[in-house]
Amino acid sequence: MDDKDLNLLKNIPYLMEKIKELENRIKQLEQAQQPQHYSLETPNYLGEI
Question: Which single residue of 1, 18, 24, 40 could bond 5 by disulfide (Cβ 3.0 to 4.6 Å)?
Answer without folding.
Answer: 1
